[in-house]
Request: fold
Amino acid sequence: MPEGEGLRPTPDRIRETLFNWLAFDVPGAHVLDCFAGAGGLGFEAASREARRVTMIDKARSAVTSLQRQSAKLGTQNIELIHDDVLHFLAQANQPFDLVFIDPPYAQGHLREQVLDALLEKKLLNNKALIYMEWPQHQQMQLNHAELTWVKQKKASCVCYAIAQYDLTG
Reply:
C-alpha cells in the first residue's frame, strides 16, 4: 500500500457493509472512485462486475501502486488516472452510476466541491448512488434538492452514508 499524507483506507468492516448495501447496484455500473488511495473501494467494485471503474488520485505514488495491483490482478474494467479529481471532473463528459467520495479527513471541504462539480457538469445518471465517508466530528449536509440519504451509519469515529441522485423525486 502506498504511503501518503491523509491516506486512510476504508476499514474492512465499513467496506463489507457498504458492498452489502450495494450488492445489486454494482454489476454493470459505471463507477468513479474520486480519491482512490490504496484502491480498496475501486478494486472491490471491479471485482463485483462493475462495467467500468475510474480510479483517480493526485498522488503519483498511489497511482503507481494501483497500476501494479491492477496488472497483478489482470483487471480489464479499471481506468487509472493521475489527476486532481476536480480537474478531472471539469473535463469529464460521461456520467456515472456510482461514486465514491472519501477524501482525506483534513480536506473534508472536497466532499462538497466534488458533489457540486458532479451536479453542475451533470455527471450523474438518474438514480446514481454516492458513497461518502467522514470523521464523526465533521458535519455532512446534502445541500442539493436532487440528493437524499438512503443509508447512513457510524463505526467507531467514522460516519458513512449513501446518497441518491434523483431527478424525478
Observations:
- The first strand starts at residue 30 and ends at 33.
- Strands lie at 30-33, 52-57, 78-82, 96-101, 124-135, 147-155, 158-165.
